[in-house]
Amino acid sequence: MAERPASPRRPPWLVKRLPVSCASAVPKLVEDLKLNTVCRSAKCPNLAECWARGTATFMILGERCTRGCRFCAVEGGTPLPPDEDEPRRVAEASTQLGLTFVVVTSVTRDDLPDGGAAHFVATVEAVHRITRARVEVLVPDFQGRAASVEEVVRSGCEVFAHNLETVPRLYDEVRPGADFERSVEVLRLAASVAAEEQVVKSGIMVGLGETAHEVAETLSRMYDAGCRSVTMGQYLSPDESRLPVAEYVEPGRFEEYARLARRMGFASVASGPFVRSSYLADQGWEQARKRAT
Q1: Is the distance from CB of 174 to CB of 183 less than 8 angstroms?
Q2: How many CB atoms lie within 10 A of CB 289?
Q3: Is the distance from CB of 134 to CB of 102 less than 8 angstroms?
Q4: Is there a contact between 142 and 114 (Cβ–Cβ < 8 Å)?
Q5: pTM of the model
Q6: Cα separations (Å) of 162 from 40, 203, 251?
Q7: Tell me: the pLDDT tens digits for 242-281?
């Protein structure tokens, strides 16, 4: 595989303005409760804004991923066994922060027989048990295990999310170890067993070398699988060891992608340079539910 050239110079529309006040209880709380957040682990550009709002995306099942996606800042390696007390601590953090919408994701755990599905279920149940918060789960592909997908959907989560991340042509380069058709099937299976009030969600990054036609085809496959909520954001390389950016997509094209997704019938669409799967996820859920009713 030929080496990509270095990332181009970052354009002015990708300068993130910090909130007026960045004071937040989030970092100390997650440290005190020995929790991980994808905000830090994935070097999210929205970290300061979200923490100032008192929100965070909890990353369960450790800090080590069993895969080596070339876009992701999360480190690979041999993970520790699941921490049985972690679901309770996520629920406690949600209570202390007064969250009404909780997002839970994880590293990929191909070492576990169920891919970590039972841990997701325990976390959803713990949050629901002691809070009134709604829960969005952003899950790995569980290596295509139907039982794991069904188990998590039936946990009662309000949103089941699994990201396609990129277009099929780029999977071998961007997501080694993953499979586009397998991820589409995860969405299809989730939609087939989801209750009427549950939302199935997915997302992609752009700026990795995809074409507009490939984005349209990927959105179409998503929608046909039963996905009704979608996010599209600019890929930003977390460090020099990861894939460089192929293109900084102009805001106008994000607007075009959003219009296309809405024409297809997606109930919730978030598309913009700084959009991430869990960014303002509560607003996406509300939009999807409003359209559904």
Answers
A1: no
A2: 18
A3: yes
A4: yes
A5: 0.88
A6: 20, 7, 25
A7: 889 999 999 999 999 999 999 999 999 999 998 988 877 8
